[in-house]
Amino acid sequence: MFDILFPSWLAGILLSLITAPLGAFVVWRKMAYFGDTLSHSALLGVALGIFLEINPYLAIILMTLILAVFMIWLENSTQFSADTLLGIIAHSCLSLGVITVGLLQNVRVDLMAYLFGDLLAINYNDVLLIAIGVAIVLIALLCIWKPLLFTTVSPELAQVEGINISRMKFLLMILTALTIAISMKFVGALLITSLLIIPAATARRFSDTPEKMVFISVLLSIISVSIGLSFSGFYDTAAGPSVVIGSACLFILSLFKKQNH
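== High-affinity zinc uptake system membrane protein ZnuB ==
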């Protein structure tokens, strides 16, 4: 059991290093629907990857990045609200992905693995690829942390200080898209956003500074991964959803903490 679970646990720990800080920005900026849209588009990336005979996970990265750019362009070029555009794109991409997979001839695709993750199939090669992706996102995030935080807390003041708000938003979306793409094998298309949001939302109840919130969120993510994988190992449940349920239980427990006023 250890040999099967350890690579998955390592992958979960690595992903926690980027899902926690990005999740904090998703919570602060109320971007949960954006994350859902990108995760739903990932299934379309899988279908196109199989159709074009390229690695599905590379196709997922390309699809989510293209869609992030497309959504920014739509938001700036139309009069529709962001949540309306995201709702249209999310369900259209998910439906188109399912239809495209169904039209592929002589190809067997395990949709459940892509929708809910195939955590126990992760090997050390996957861990290495995830580590490279995590390093890229983490370095980029550290480089833009201060201006990104500034534009989140006070966009007007950041603009006065000469920070390009649109560029910061674009970079955040790109990093979120990349994180969703490399996390997909871990929890699947339908559960990725929960990996971003739940630990960050839980950590918010125990934090009085942004840095403290990120630190606590990382710890909570690691605990959730450990609980979920342990539960999956002992009771033979789906690993990805078990991790999410572990995270949700921690959030429920946090609700019993009295907030300081």
